[in-house]
């Protein structure tokens, strides 16, 4: 007898060990496809896979187009999934049905985009919007793994100039501006509607001007 496991668009995997334990291992190892749908049914399996996760977010006109769009990208994603089988699970998601979720969770607003988590469930994400080819995406994923690619942060645009004593910090400049080993940083987090924040603003400005005027170099 022969036992094989085959997912859509993939080569069949032959289970060589037909013992009870051998079959279980073979089926467990091949339960998820190389490139599969990420939905309510499969979400838990991907989250518990122990691997990183690649979310394939592709342009769709409607939810009915999901499988057609996935098939268009399947050759690319299958090749990548084979290369990174031990590190990442590769998925595609309905970008019409889950539009709000992927915008809120991943910050994805344009397609195609690959959103990458080093480990499924991580809040840290890496967004790839470049050329959708095996060499380019592979290079990006290797950079994510070795730390040469920085995570993508939700951020307002960086101010064009910082001429005022009080500098404006946005998401993408937070680490460089605030976490400085050689300086003490006074960092205010406020809400525009906060009455106490509005009252503090002029006093905060006075302190900043005084620090600049006195030439204090180890404080920002």
From TrEMBL:
GO terms for molecular function: protein disulfide isomerase activity. Signal peptide: none annotated. InterPro entries: Thioredoxin-like_sf, Thioredoxin_domain. It catalyses: Catalyzes the rearrangement of -S-S- bonds in proteins. Its EC number is 5.3.4.1. Keywords: Endoplasmic reticulum, Isomerase, Redox-active center. GO terms for biological process: protein folding; response to endoplasmic reticulum stress. One of its GO terms (cellular component) is endoplasmic reticulum lumen. It comes from the Eukaryota. Residues 167-212 form the Thioredoxin domain. It is an enzyme of class 5 (isomerase). It is found in: Endoplasmic reticulum lumen. Belongs to the protein disulfide isomerase family. This is protein disulfide-isomerase. It comes from Perkinsus olseni (Perkinsus atlanticus).
